[in-house]
Amino acid sequence: MIIVLKTNLSNQEIEEVFHKLESLGLTAQLVKTKPNTTIAILDDVSTLPTHLISQIPYIEKLIRLQLPNPLVKSSKNKAIKLANGLSFGNNNPPIIIAGPCAVDEPNELIELALDIKARGAHILRGGAFKPRTSPYDFQGHGLDALKTLGEAKQITGLPIISEVMSAEQVDLALPYVDILQIGTRNMYNYELLKEVGRSDKTVLLKRAFSATLNEWLLAAEYIMSAGNENVILCERGIRTFETYTRNTLDLSIVAAAKRQTSLPIIVDPSHATGKEELIRPMARAAIACGAHGLMIEVHPQPDKSMSDKEQAITPNQLSEIIADTEMLYQTINKLDHSELIALT
Amino acid sequence: MIIVLKTNLSNQEIEEVFHKLESLGLTAQLVKTKPNTTIAILDDVSTLPTHLISQIPYIEKLIRLQLPNPLVKSSKNKAIKLANGLSFGNNNPPIIIAGPCAVDEPNELIELALDIKARGAHILRGGAFKPRTSPYDFQGHGLDALKTLGEAKQITGLPIISEVMSAEQVDLALPYVDILQIGTRNMYNYELLKEVGRSDKTVLLKRAFSATLNEWLLAAEYIMSAGNENVILCERGIRTFETYTRNTLDLSIVAAAKRQTSLPIIVDPSHATGKEELIRPMARAAIACGAHGLMIEVHPQPDKSMSDKEQAITPNQLSEIIADTEMLYQTINKLDHSELIALT
Amino acid sequence: MIIVLKTNLSNQEIEEVFHKLESLGLTAQLVKTKPNTTIAILDDVSTLPTHLISQIPYIEKLIRLQLPNPLVKSSKNKAIKLANGLSFGNNNPPIIIAGPCAVDEPNELIELALDIKARGAHILRGGAFKPRTSPYDFQGHGLDALKTLGEAKQITGLPIISEVMSAEQVDLALPYVDILQIGTRNMYNYELLKEVGRSDKTVLLKRAFSATLNEWLLAAEYIMSAGNENVILCERGIRTFETYTRNTLDLSIVAAAKRQTSLPIIVDPSHATGKEELIRPMARAAIACGAHGLMIEVHPQPDKSMSDKEQAITPNQLSEIIADTEMLYQTINKLDHSELIALT
Amino acid sequence: MIIVLKTNLSNQEIEEVFHKLESLGLTAQLVKTKPNTTIAILDDVSTLPTHLISQIPYIEKLIRLQLPNPLVKSSKNKAIKLANGLSFGNNNPPIIIAGPCAVDEPNELIELALDIKARGAHILRGGAFKPRTSPYDFQGHGLDALKTLGEAKQITGLPIISEVMSAEQVDLALPYVDILQIGTRNMYNYELLKEVGRSDKTVLLKRAFSATLNEWLLAAEYIMSAGNENVILCERGIRTFETYTRNTLDLSIVAAAKRQTSLPIIVDPSHATGKEELIRPMARAAIACGAHGLMIEVHPQPDKSMSDKEQAITPNQLSEIIADTEMLYQTINKLDHSELIALT
Questions:
Q1: Domains of chain D
Q2: B138 touches chain A (CB under 8 A)
Q3: For the whole model, what pTM was predicted?
């Protein structure tokens, strides 16, 4: 960490800063840069509460050389085991999560679950509690939808993922789901992160559409520091000036996150693009740059979906994406282990 | 509402859309625009759940001409009465909310509260629960801080505002605070909005740093449609590419919001700029464009603040801002009622 | 086009709007939506100057259903032929453009050109005129650099691409380059677009880091409407709140642009990410989602590059990317023509 | 400047970096921070070309503590004198620039010029060359419009400002205008900046809607380092995710820029908001936070304006803004010199 001091301090004032740093057990070195003198802290301060340093007087600003997310960083070569024996992350083949935006008719959901399983999907998604911008829009069927998901699991054997938005909803969801989803609007809901961090379910943490990589990894650190090591990251598009797509899918951050943590990281091209015709090419791009899986909205008749119809695809289109994923994963694997690379 | 149909529909398909709209009791008109045919809905559909229309087949997209926030829109000439007899909003003089980022030493807080009251502030702010990006940073003193705030209220008579982040924290805060604050990170936390909507406390709703005006007003609509009409809006800066300031203060949206609702709207220049030297000019600008109040971080010795020290100002600086506010409010009032304007 | 009228117009005022529209030869239809009455224009108005309609009184706003870029849209199945016999775009194998950020030592450039040609690159890039944020930073070797590029072309046979920023630089570059590059900072420089539109060289048009898809395609329309049909689009990252990467690579817009135009579209992962370790995964993602080529900064010793060293890769790394590109192109091609897709 | 080295360097490699720095005449100090060792440069390196340092091997990244804009920074207490005897900037009363978006009918312009002069405006604006997103939209009347502006100047005595987009247009404009305007789309057009930097006209430099404060001040540095000290900065809104307003007016950066340079800085609320009803409140806010002037689109009948009609105001509305400006300037001046502030 580099401490930039205010300008024109007296020697006595600078000494005072040094004494405070020493009383925290830190080793510091003075550097007479221009126009501001700086102090370098030579220790690793990644989990030291920032205010212990920042409340020392005479400091203009702090420059961190290292981010405070030791648990996220140290989780090496992690793969998360699913109920159906599959492993998520590391070098395992990509996992396909598919299902409708919101759970509606029970029969329709079970029929769809059987269909997507037959086509090769690994996990069933379905919304029971829906975060909607308007209070007058459909908010999900709640407990009824959770029960429908539980039934679908019993019949198909597919693990279930569903979104929760409050401690109360976590309690309701626990008996029915395998993976608790934290949606993009709740990534900064730290009380909820602590709550799911105390549960024994795997958590899928979507990136907030306004979150930096650093904030996202620290949100994962909240869950992990509460005791839950099974976190899957999910990129689903960020908010930018571009309005042609619903959001801007940020695949560079997927590649970047893979270099910072071994937590599995997947991509949701449905919410990222909001456009049915862009989902397949973005699914391909996600797998090509190393995503550990995909989360995709599927509806038997997208035109009749209760929400987000313009981004749902048909089961037939899902088959195409699954075929793409398998072949691209093989290609990438081959390229990663080819002699050319070994030589260079 | 304008419905843009998919291209190349048959007459029968278009008729099917009309029948569905009729079964919802809506009056529709066909418009043969190019390249897509459109259908105009002639009724007011501002609170009709969107999915009832959007799940009709053959629809490409919906263009809303009106936003679904009737309660926010209809709250005309609203002023919110505070415990100490002051009124917030409408044409009342601006309200000054001031206090430290986080509540720390009880004696220090009470001394500060007495000081800012003497200088003319109207409401005491202080964080008991702090949303922090890192789980390793200081998270607030919780219930102890709430009790300290309650004590400060008894001694000074100043109403209290403090942030809550979960249903549990709402319950803890109710006995001690007059205004529940929803912070920028929880504006999309719809379960929390419903929770404070069911309480009888005034709610201060900060704009999420990623929220559009529409999303912000709909978040207020969540609180109001749950039964609580006493909502104060607070602009505190949005996230943009500009990193010189902590956020980008969006005063145009303050002026725009005033034209959409009569809910009081205030500005937090401390979090918006993150820079002590920019708070005073931005406080001036906020009052000049019609903000109903200011929320400002004050610390007796900003250099020693536990968090956000670079954006806290001293009580003396607060006095300057209060003097600015009073004189600018008078100037604006005079201009709004001058003959020149009456004539034009 | 939908015209939203101001509220509370008299019948006579609305009639006046209709007369103005008729005098422009347009067919219009009144639609009594609430709260604003609208008028639909039933003709195709994609190249009608907007002001002819917008200056009609009583209009609140215009909603375009179609963008005004007929040339960009109608350029079907276009492939651009290069001097060395290769074709760019359509279904041709991806083109690899490689070279240093700035041209420095002639011998070094020629050695590098021979090297990247041997490794399979198709076009040599190199900056003669460098747009730099600071006037005190290196601005390129100008004409000397152009001559060096010309020499490299003679020796290697590789076509040359280099950036121009003014009419004067276009004149200087014409004898030496095959493709004129419009950089991200000059995409809105419409006078320059007209200038290169009047030349007979192929133009590579980078997306401005702040441009919407619409603005980008209209910039291409500027070049095409000036007479030059040979335009290649290049996505190089947009400016967002995320600062971990230099820019945010927007691959969704690559896929979207391919559905709007048949102009070739390539990706520059070097400037998009600004981080050497992210270039290879993003190059893979670009090819997987259908990019027609890649533009990559290569330096024999990136550590000694005069600019943008942290985003330059070595010739060995280029070999890896070329191998990736070839195998991924084959995989994608196979998937696009597999029976599965034919059946659905 | 702080140099962050790559990790795991040998002592010999670090010594090599030191030798290179010494050969540049720089004094450096080693700082053994974790996880990366850093080197602090103790000299002022604000105008040292970055590549001289960045091309030294073994460097991971550079952290500048000071921006490279010495001319912009050192221009203390600057006021720019106008042809009509008025002074722009410093503590002079705010300057009002007003006029139509585009110059159309000569008689109409002259009538408007006489009107706005009578109402108290100081400078006449009017577009001769219009940067338009679509090549099919109205591009301005060019030389004819410049001549009309020249005539308006002769009749009214008002100095003239008009936008130029190329070296050729600069030559055309020189005989007719007093201030050359660089528009938001050309702020990064460094060749044009150098061109106007070589002229003897005052330059008004609009901030690009995607520019950071740093980039904007460096664009001004381009003009000043080419020999022209008379630069006026103009904030006109930045591009963000918020689409309710045309752009997001960034007044914090106006206040920030005033603390970095004494160049005059004005605000264009017309383009920033794009909404007629928001111009007056934003003009007030701009003056309140210290802007040295305003640039406002005025049209005798905004409904009939050829472009940007929804953001033009009437001459009567301009009178209101001028009255606001005068009274707010007096209020601010009084506050800046009140005893209260003197005491604290």
A1: 2-66 (3.30.70.1140), 79-338 (3.20.20.70)
A2: yes
A3: 0.93
